[in-house]
């Protein structure tokens, strides 16, 4: 606890801008090419487990590229690639089952991709991102509700854009039907990501 407190005090002392927090004014953000900060990003999925509980998992290996237009966010571009064999539920046997032909069939379909086709601004820090999701060899349009968390330098003088997003897909739309409909059809996606300027 003492080490954590000392680290936070030192970080805030080094970076007054960080202490003030990120700016949520989109117009003040930097435009340009960004890549996801893998150490500060999560793609989490959840599904009803036969109606008894909600089961959660995530993907450990993914990449995302953002071309951000601060003056006109609707013109921004986003491309995401997820490696399906990186699925992680903290249960190794379940992970292997999800990678099998019963579910993701990761050997045959090693990646899932999302390519934004339309971005709509709905508020000062909110918007929707519609794109083509290719999963299990099937491509379908998916819309995510997105929130701009802010932009600015972090404690280490690295420029950051931060976003959250949520959405729901129906797994049978992508040909994943094992144990359907007893095992939940609707899969909720919860995404949070920091982006840094591309090098």
TrEMBL record:
Pfam families: YceI. Residues 33-196 form the Lipid/polyisoprenoid-binding YceI-like domain. The keyword Signal applies. The keyword Hydrolase does not apply. Keywords: Signal. The lineage of its organism: Bacteria, Pseudomonadati, Pseudomonadota, Alphaproteobacteria, Hyphomicrobiales. This is Polyisoprenoid-binding protein YceI. SUPFAM superfamilies: YceI-like. It comes from Pseudoxanthobacter soli DSM 19599. Residues 1-19 form the signal peptide.
């Amino acid at each position: 606890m003492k080490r954590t407190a000392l680290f936070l005090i030192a970080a805030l002392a080094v970076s007054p801008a960080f202490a003030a927090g990120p700016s949520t004014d989109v117009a003040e953000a930097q435009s340009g090419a960004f890549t996801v900060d893998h150490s500060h990003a999560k793609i989490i999925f959840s599904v009803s487990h036969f109606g008894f509980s909600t089961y959660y998992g995530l993907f450990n290996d993914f990449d995302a590229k953002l071309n951000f237009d601060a003056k006109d966010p609707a013109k921004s571009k986003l491309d995401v690639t997820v490696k399906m064999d990186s699925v992680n539920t903290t249960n190794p046997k379940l992970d292997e089952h999800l990678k099998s032909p019963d579910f993701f069939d990761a050997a045959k379909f090693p990646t899932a991709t999302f390519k934004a086709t339309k971005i709509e601004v709905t508020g000062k820090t909110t918007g929707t991102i519609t794109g083509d999701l290719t999963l299990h060899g099937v491509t379908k349009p998916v819309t995510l509700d997105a929130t701009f968390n802010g932009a600015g330098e972090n404690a280490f003088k690295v420029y950051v854009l931060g976003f959250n997003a949520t959405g729901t897909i129906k797994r049978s739309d992508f040909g994943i039907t094992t144990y359907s409909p007893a095992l939940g059809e609707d899969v909720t996606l919860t995404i949070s990501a920091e982006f840094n300027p591309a090098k």
